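Suppose a colleague, Dr. K., hands you the sequence of a protein chain of 416 amino acids and asks what its three-dimensional shape might be. Before reaching for any lab equipment, you can write down a predicted structure in token form. Begin with the sequence itself:
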Amino acid sequence: MKNLLVLGAGTAGTMAVAKLRPRLPASDWRITVVDRDDEHHYQPGYLFVPFGVYDRADVVRPRSRYLPEGVDLVLGEIAAIDPEGCAVTLADGTALAYDELIVATGTSPRPDQTPGMLGDAWRRSVHEFYTLAGAEALRDALAGFAGGRLVAHVSELPVKCPVAPLEFLFLADAHFRDRGIRERVELVFVTPLDGAFTTPVAAERLAGLLEARGIAVETDFVVERIDADGRALVSYDERTVPFDLLVTVPVNMGADAIAACGLGDELQHVAVDPGTLQSRRFPNVFALGDANDAPTSKAGSAVHLALESFVENFVQHARGLPMTHAYDGRVNCFVETGGGKALLLDFDYATQPSPGRYPLSAVGPFSGLEETTMNHVGKMMFKWAYWHLLLRGRDLPLPSGAPRSDVEPRLEGAAS
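The predicted structure, expressed as tokens, is then:
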């Protein structure tokens, strides 16, 4: 009997075991998933909590409900990973041996990494919405915000769902218009990038939407500290951006146990081959979703699309065969732009977002790089699909009509 150990029962870990359990005979493979609690969070829903669209009941359900039969769930904090000895130790001293390890511990906001971010101003004039508690506190802050300078800020990349800060600003613009106080609110986006987004085509399109809504953009801003008393962001080149209400995206980092065992980079994300998602150091270790350093967006859709190739590779790997599939970095996302509309982005390692109908090229119903009501419908339908289809290992009932890369994906480090 071989042991597959999965660290993390979030989006990546849950989807992976749902797809792998039917492919790995129970007579040959024991599958165990470890997480610190039994709360599964629909993280894309955090964006809507500050605006009263979703609440806790919409975004939190038991992890155990979504794990398939034949998968064991162990609750506990991960204390140490020993990739040399093929074992994981929990905080209570429990040791879990493995033959194959999947790291799906995600990435988390770390406000402690930026001087001045934590302190008396935290969740008073300085907020974030990348945790449920933060999104709920921001909801209360927005309800009491009658005017002033609201700044949305990204500390450093990569972060989970890199378009989310822009979506927040678009929704804030609509929110204040609905309240009749938009003229009393100055909205500013502050980013370390040289544009509104990472890919040039999307950056240009999103910059146009920001300009049309009167949202200012401060680029190439690498934050050194937050002057909480003076209510200002301060960059390393000594520029300052004042605020009355700051909505920041703190530095995102992987689990501490990853850094301690040498699997990760400086942000504690596991170094992997971008095609196979296999560790560059240990052939029996893989990292999925936000936990790895693959050069694509840290988003739920990236996990879902990566699993198409990953599952086939892992089954081959488990049988001692060469891995012959590769993830091409594809990710797609509906970017909420307010007023009941959204923009669709779909791209991969080599392909820029492009216009056109999706997923059926002739009829859609969704439109790439366009603001449409149907794109917004797709965005809002995703929560149902997440809970009822994706977490249970079922694919969305849509054909793949997105642009595909004509560059052969890399298979660096693939091991037999």
